[in-house]
């Protein structure tokens, strides 16, 4: 009964994963069909001693903290606002969710358009508010480029956090909130003493989902900054892609083996992050 | 590199043929003898032999491909072959072609073979077109291979014995400037700067800098900045910088013919020569007076900014002339790029189209018919006229056509031809700029534009930048 499903699973996940591991220990040639010639730990040592790869990991971690942090805060605030609305909640909810349904590449293109210093609406607003100089692009400055791509990611994915948190908020017992109100607890006291603790498992799930995704961030940064300026937004996915595109001096051997190593390290990082969150949930008895 | 044409007809052609023959090593001249002279595409036999076949053509999203995609019906009527055209950014194309060639099958039968990012690293995945050129069962290449401009640079790698692609487009970097603003301010600028600022090959890069700076300080009412550059951390940054590098007498490698047929053994880089360091220092200085958004523009971004009146001048690919004429009709002039201590260098960005070696049977034949048709003079004239943006013909004969010559002056129904005199000058051997055709170019390209991006962002000084590039080049090339 389960066999067909297992076979499909093997085909689409296990075999490619095994291939990925094999490639990480091999020189990969593509022309005329994929062929591997074992290379020991050559790819691993090349990647692990490559300053560019470590730099891109640093950039990724910065993005990770900024993006996930902003998404959690903004998403939670959005959910609280939506939850408190008595009228028009459905309409507002639909509008808030819209960015989430856009392809990331579209978000990047939108960002390029809206933040274009010549024709971009957001650029015009920021220039009017003296937040940026005349004709300055936020994507062109080392100090603002990361913030810009992070904000675009937040714009797209904070709604997902809002959706998850909103689901959690509906589970907060009205009688408990009523009791807090009767006891004279203010909004902030109620929020931090009752609401947040009640939805903590949901918040951690949202954090887990977004964290796993943030490591793979690629589309928006690719289309907006290309990793620049001066490599300030060169995330690990761009580094991986760079290796995929590269060819060795013989014109035949690719550097896909090195990109496989980077892919595996990304996977390991994601697993570690996921495990940390799961342990936190488990320690607090929230996994049940 | 590529192109042709002029006011003096034969004289221009003679100059170009001689120039390309000598400077670009056009093996085409030698091959011409074994190429059957052809009639017109569409005439003769052999076009219908693969009727009913469907082929796929993958191309960068360039003006010629947009024009052909919008008007491929003549090919389908002529051959009965259905052609699907997919267009995308070059970096995505490279990835798709590489994966396609690795599969043993061919999803894409006709491939836009960028000489640096596709042809050099993947030449072994492309079919040698000589088998079709010399096979009588196929319609001959109209006017022969000798009619092509830059056949070696666009179509060969390492050896002149094999031909992997036929030249398909040939954008070249030239100096685009607001003629109306130069006319308006010429006398004042000349008085202030002490030289005639009229754009031409006589203007030095240092003077270009001074002109840009002058616009910044004296013409804000008309244009925000004097110069703009495609200085995003992207392939475009390397293209823009290369013009200056060559103008200063430096190069990436010191290997003969590395820009035409290429090499798999480029050896040590030459990016730390005094000339290279001077070029980097100047480029760093130039970018300091450029439009601040230059660091976010690739060629498209720069083209749009110029068309939007953001800069008075810029170096960009000549195929943007069509866009300029729509946005700034009659207001844009064209010249070869300024000269450096050594020469004027104008980056050639031409590309050929080739056939995936994995294509089977009828697909190969049908693909060849498409390659032959798409690069034929008649098709190139069609793309020149296209409202989709205009082509950049790769046939000498096209530039000699009366209607094409007429289009060199306004009003022109082939706006790209307004750049003809500049481009013709740019293609002369002494002015052409050819990037090194090596298998590792994708890696080297990234090294160049990443380090340059650090330099113009102020994170690295020019000397450190060039030293970093050189050491990384040498590491990649062993």
Automatic annotation (TrEMBL), chain A:
KW Signal (keyword) present: no
Supply the alphabetized keyword list.
Cell membrane, Membrane, Transmembrane, Transmembrane helix, Transport
Q: Where located?
A: Cell membrane
Spans traversing the lipid bilayer: 54-81, 93-115, 157-177, 189-209, 255-278
- Signal peptide coordinates: none
Q: Which GO terms describe its biological process?
A: transmembrane transport
Assigned GO CC terms = plasma membrane
Superkingdom, natural source: Bacteria
Tell me how this protein sits in the membrane.
Multi-pass membrane protein
User: What's the chief localization of this chain?
Assistant: membrane
Family, similarity comment: Belongs to the binding-protein-dependent transport system permease family.
Q: Output the PANTHER family linked to this UniProt entry.
A: BLR7065 PROTEIN, SPERMIDINE_PUTRESCINE TRANSPORT SYSTEM PERMEASE PROTEIN
How is this protein named in the record? Sugar ABC transporter permease
């Amino acid at each position: 009964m389960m066999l067909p499903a297992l076979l499909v699973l093997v085909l689409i996940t296990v075999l490619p994963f095994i291939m990925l591991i094999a490639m990480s220990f091999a020189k990969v040639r593509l022309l005329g069909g994929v062929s591997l010639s074992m290379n020991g730990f050559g790819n691993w040592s090349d990647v692990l001693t490559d300053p560019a790869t470590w730099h891109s990991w640093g950039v990724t971690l910065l993005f990770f903290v900024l993006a996930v942090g902003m998404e959690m805060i903004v998403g939670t605030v959005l959910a609280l606002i939506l939850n408190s609305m008595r009228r028009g909640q459905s309409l507002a909810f639909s509008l808030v969710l819209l960015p989430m349904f856009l392809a990331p590449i579209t978000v990047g293109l939108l960002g390029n358009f809206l933040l274009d210093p010549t024709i971009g609406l957001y650029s015009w607003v920021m220039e009017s508010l003296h937040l940026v100089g005349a004709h300055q692009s936020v994507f062109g400055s080392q100090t603002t480029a990361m913030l810009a791509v992070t904000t675009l990611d937040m714009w797209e994915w904070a709604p997902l956090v809002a959706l998850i948190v909103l689901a959690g908020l509906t589970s907060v017992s009205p009688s408990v909130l009523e009791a807090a109100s009767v006891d004279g607890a203010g909004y902030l006291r109620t929020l931090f003493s009752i609401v947040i603790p009640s939805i903590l498992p949901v918040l951690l799930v949202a954090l887990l989902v977004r964290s796993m995704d943030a490591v793979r961030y690629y589309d928006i940064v690719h289309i907006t900054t290309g990793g620049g300026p001066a490599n300030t937004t060169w995330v690990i996915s761009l580094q991986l892609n760079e290796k995929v595109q590269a060819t060795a001096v013989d014109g035949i051997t690719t550097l896909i083996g090195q990109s496989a190593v980077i892919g595996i390290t990304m996977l390991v990082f994601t697993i570690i992050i996921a495990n940390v969150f799961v342990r936190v949930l488990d320690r607090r008895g929230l996994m049940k | 590199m590529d192109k042709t044409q002029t006011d003096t007809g034969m004289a221009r052609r003679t100059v170009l043929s001689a120039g390309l023959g000598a400077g670009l090593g056009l093996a085409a001249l030698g091959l011409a003898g074994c190429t059957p002279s052809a009639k017109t595409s569409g005439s003769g036999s052999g076009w219908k032999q693969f009727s009913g076949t469907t082929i796929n053509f993958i191309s960068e999203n360039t003006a010629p491909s947009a024009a052909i995609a919008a008007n491929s019906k003549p090919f389908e009527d002529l051959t009965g072959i259905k052609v699907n055209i997919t267009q995308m950014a070059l970096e995505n194309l490279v990835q798709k072609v590489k994966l396609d060639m690795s599969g043993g099958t061919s999803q894409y039968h006709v491939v836009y073979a960028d000489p640096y990012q596709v042809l050099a690293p993947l030449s072994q995945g492309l079919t040698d077109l000589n088998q079709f050129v010399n096979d009588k069962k196929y319609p001959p290449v109209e006017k022969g291979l000798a009619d092509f401009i830059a056949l070696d640079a666009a179509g060969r790698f390492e050896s002149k014995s094999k031909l992997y692609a036929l030249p398909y487009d040939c954008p070249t970097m030239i100096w685009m400037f607001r003629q109306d603003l130069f006319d308006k301010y010429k006398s004042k600028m000349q008085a202030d700067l002490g030289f005639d600022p009229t754009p031409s090959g006589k203007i030095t890069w240092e003077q270009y800098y001074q002109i840009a700076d002058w616009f910044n300080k004296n013409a804000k009412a008309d244009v925000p900045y004097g110069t703009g550059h495609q200085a995003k951390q992207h392939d475009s940054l390397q293209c823009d910088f290369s013009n200056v590098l060559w103008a200063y007498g430096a190069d990436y490698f010191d290997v003969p013919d590395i820009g035409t047929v290429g090499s798999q053994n480029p050896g040590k880089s030459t990016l730390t020569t005094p000339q290279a360091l001077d070029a980097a220092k100047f480029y760093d200085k130039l970018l300091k007076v450029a439009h601040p958004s230059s660091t976010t523009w690739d060629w498209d971004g720069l083209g749009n900014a110029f068309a939007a009146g953001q800069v008075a001048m810029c170096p960009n690919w000549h195929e943007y002339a069509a866009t300029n004429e729509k946005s700034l009709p009659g207001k844009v002039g064209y010249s070869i790029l300024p000269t450096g201590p050594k020469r004027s260098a104008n980056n050639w960005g031409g590309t050929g189209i080739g056939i995936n070696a994995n294509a089977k049977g009828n697909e190969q034949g049908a693909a060849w018919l498409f390659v032959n048709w798409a690069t034929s003079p008649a098709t190139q004239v069609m793309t020149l006229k296209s409202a989709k943006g205009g082509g950049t013909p790769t046939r000498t004969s096209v530039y000699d056509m009366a209607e094409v010559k007429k289009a060199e002056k306004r009003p022109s129904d082939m706006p790209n031809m307004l750049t003809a005199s500049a481009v013709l000058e740019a293609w002369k051997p002494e002015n052409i700029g050819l990037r090194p055709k090596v298998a590792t170019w994708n890696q080297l390209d990234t090294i160049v534009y990443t380090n340059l991006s650090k330099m113009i962002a102020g994170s690295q000084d020019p000397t450190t930048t060039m030293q970093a590039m050189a050491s990384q080049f040498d590491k990649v090339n062993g």
